[in-house]
Amino acid sequence: MKYEFQSGFASQIKNMLEHREVMGYSVLWHRQMLANFDRFCYEKHTGESILTKEIAFAWCNDAEGSKGANKACAIRGLARYILAGGNEAYVMPTAFFPQQKAKLPYIMNDNEIKSFFEAANRYPGNSINPLLGCIVPVIFRLQYACGMRPQEVRRLRCIDFNYNDNTIYIVEGKHNKDRCIPVNQNIMNMCKEYNQIAEILIPHREYFFQSPRGGFYTAAWHENIFRKCWGMSENGARHGYCTPYILRHNYATQTLMRWIEEGKNLDAMIPYLSAYMGHEKFSATYYYIHLLPERLARMDFTGLDGIIPEVIDYEED
């Protein structure tokens, strides 16, 4: 049964969750954490509707529920949303959040990449969504071939594709930066063939990968489909859980490795890769050198002071 929020923060919590869902982000974790916060406030801070420092700390220090760091993260997100709406709220400082080094993403070998896409090819459609069997292999191949962020490939519109010059326009990527990227002819042919099928099943659609509800697919949907294909490929049995972001990471490292094999100067080529992937800083692109095989990562271009910083939250790039 779906939890009904009932504290003085109920409407703000529901509005925040709806906002995240509309923006295509997963809400499962936030819904669970904020349901616990709502119960806490309903029982111990009845009638309170302003998120004060006292309430925030009382919630994080409460003996029941999940760990304090998770609580602090959830309540900080709610507070920032409340502030953005012009209302008063205490935002916990980032100093309260211990920084943890992110686990390095897994880089697939050729056989694993092949197995994954063969699994995507086998993903079935259904009566509710007959286009699904066509969407799955295309959305993952497109993301991998272009190194897109998951949210970028999910939100592509039909008008973003230019089949005359083989380019895709990515609107409002991270940091609200638009960019236009050239795409391999074979990939554009794949997209064109998919588009012809989709137009028959969903005439005049807005989004390239449009859900049965009419909008773009959510992050939760994307991750769930990826997880199923990952399991079907049997890669998961060898390497455990991964997310769609692995495709972006693999695009970057495969590109760098190809340039090395071709004898190209990485220092000269990095700016091109950075612009293509929509990185705000070159350092985010240089990070991928960490993921190359050890013999390549020890090459001279990695020895420059400060050129490869420690990246904590790599999945945001």
Helix and strand arrangement:
Elements: H1 10-22, H2 28-44, H3 53-61, H4 68-84, H5 110-121, H6 132-146, H7 150-154, E1 161-162, E2 167-170, E3 179-182, H8 185-201, H9 219-232, H10 235-239, H11 245-261, H12 266-277, H13 282-286, H14 294-297
Antiparallel strand pairs: 1-2, 2-3
Helix pairs in contact: 2-4, 3-4, 5-6, 5-9, 6-8, 6-11, 11-12
Can you tell me about this structure?
It is a single chain. The protein has 317 residues and is mainly alpha-helical. It has 3 domains: 10-96; 112-239, Intergrase catalytic core (hpI Integrase, Chain A); 245-316. The chain is built from 14 helices and 3 strands. It has helices spanning 10-22, 28-44, 53-61, 68-84, 110-121, 132-146, 150-154, 185-201, 219-232, 235-239, 245-261, 266-277, 282-286, 294-297; strands at 161-162, 167-170, 179-182. A 3-stranded antiparallel β-sheet has the order 1-2-3, with no helix packed on it. Strand 2 and strand 3 form a beta hairpin. Residues 297-316 have low confidence and may be disordered.
